[in-house]
Design a protein that fits this description.
2 copies of one chain form a homodimer.
Chain A: E1 6-13, E2 16-25, E3 30-38, E4 47-53, H1 61-66, H2 69-76, E5 79-83, H3 122-137, E6 140-149, H4 152-163, E7 171-174, H5 184-194, H6 206-212, E8 219-224, H7 230-234, H8 236-246, E9 250-255, H9 262-281
Parallel strand pairs in A: 4-5, 4-6, 7-8, 8-9
Antiparallel strand pairs in A: 1-2, 2-3, 3-5
């Protein structure tokens, strides 16, 4: 049975539709929201999809309103699927105590520790529940997916993409948390959601995956050199070394003088959409 | 003597710089903020400028983050100057009581009524103080200006542009308040800032100006047909009639199905920048 999607808002944009939906999530045990951009081409034929995973504190709105991606998606004929970054409103103890943990900081894992287990499953939500919902309700081509994201969402895109080369044709990221087992943000989240045994964290660490389970797909990554989180939290050099060790293809572009935010993302998002479009269409 | 500009933030964007500044405003009698986008070309040669006036509740950030205009400005070699929409933090009685009046709702007039007179002079600020400040401190071509805006800011762009054909080469607007003397938003603001005599409101009404003081410049206006404020507040048909009566050139484009917000603005902002670029460069 197709799950119910409730349309929350819609607006015309570049000849297509920008929409937001709410639905009951089984994986997260609460209502979840996501945003969609459908290009003009989707009125006539199912289109391929790019899943975008956002960063700490974000909702489905940040990328929708700030990245300027609809223009490229309209021209290329791609749908954009933009989930929220965590369950919301569960009133779990500690859920809203910190900006970098809990609400807005699901870290794209399946939590195993109380009180998060059973709700904080953004991994299962993004990999399985959301695509099934999208592909049974919206005019997209089933199975024709790419994945990208920013910061915490870049970590999500890399780890999910590396683990599921069968489910995503292409993978990219902006300023991703490349080695969460070593970064303060990552260690805080992984220990709370998964417990103290670091071997359970490995499947959620892009650098560990790239070293130990490389895929044939090229990872396209843009990283600003003036990003204030670069050295302490993001650590692209760790991923670079891991890829070199295993032969994982990587195109890491250090963008001179760019920062961490959406003025950086909007500058290069067009090139990422072209990269994904080529992989999705064989162009 | 050049006034002091304090740099609040800056970020690389499309090869140029997105910046925000704070400065003491004589017109408004308080500190004011504005945002600037400088295209890559400004590193080598002074560039023409587009002034963008935002709508109710907005600050200098809304257009900066949501319109996606930097991409076009970078390609065309134009600077964007984006002021706030009112004085802030004056603690005047009633300043923060309503979303459509006071803070965030300066309406681009020179207030004559207490307690607003001496502070709420967004007209003088936009027309004289801000350009003087910009042209003495930033790498722009003095006197080579265009003006545009959205909603309340569309009203500002049309009225300021019509009154000063010598100061602006071209004028455009998105979903402007075309006849503020007839709209509830306009009547509330004009009566409070200017008093009860409607003859003092005429210089701030685009339809009155177009009928009585037409200019030779074509007004380019985009208006979404699904805009919820269209009939009650915006009234493009009143401006259309005024332009027809006086011979004021008008290109009013009714965009089918588009709403009022930035998903509408971002769709057509590229065409507006091209329109202004042609007027500014004689291309």
């Amino acid at each position: 049975m197709s799950q119910a999607l409730e349309l929350i808002s819609e607006a015309r944009c570049f000849g297509g539709w920008q929409r937001s939906y709410r639905h009951r999530s089984e994986r997260c045990g609460c209502d979840m929201r996501f945003a969609v951009y459908l290009p003009p081409a989707a009125e006539h034929t199912p289109v391929p999809t790019l899943y975008w995973l956002s960063g700490l504190t974000c909702t489905e709105d940040n990328f929708s309103t700030k990245a300027g991606a609809q223009r490229y998606a309209a021209a290329l004929g791609m749908a954009l699927i933009m989930p929220d970054t965590s369950p919301r409103g569960l009133a779990l103890p500690g859920e809203d105590d910190a900006w970098d943990f809990g609400s807005g900081a699901g870290f794209y894992v399946t939590a195993t520790q109380a009180p998060w287990a059973g709700h904080y499953d953004m991994y299962g939500y993004v990999v399985e529940e959301l695509p099934a919902l999208v592909e049974s309700n919206l005019p997209v081509q089933a199975g024709l997916r790419a994945i990208s994201g920013h910061s915490m969402g870049g970590h999500g895109a890399l780890t999910i993409g590396l683990k599921h080369p069968d489910r995503y044709r292409s993978i990219s990221a902006f300023a991703p948390i490349c080695a969460p087992m070593r970064s303060p943000w990552g260690r805080k989240a992984l220990s709370a959601y998964l417990g103290d045994d670091p071997t359970t964290w490995q499947q959620y660490d892009a650098s560990w995956l790239a070293a130990n389970q490389p895929s044939a797909q090229t990872l396209l990554i843009d990283q600003g050199t003036a990003d204030p989180w670069l050295a302490e939290q993001l650590m692209p050099e760790v991923l670079e070394e891991a890829c070199a060790s295993s032969g994982q293809p990587l195109e890491l572009r250090r963008q001179q003088g760019y920062e961490h935010g959406y003025y950086f993302v909007c500058t290069f998002i067009g090139e990422h959409l072209e990269f994904h479009h080529a992989a999705l269409t064989g162009a």
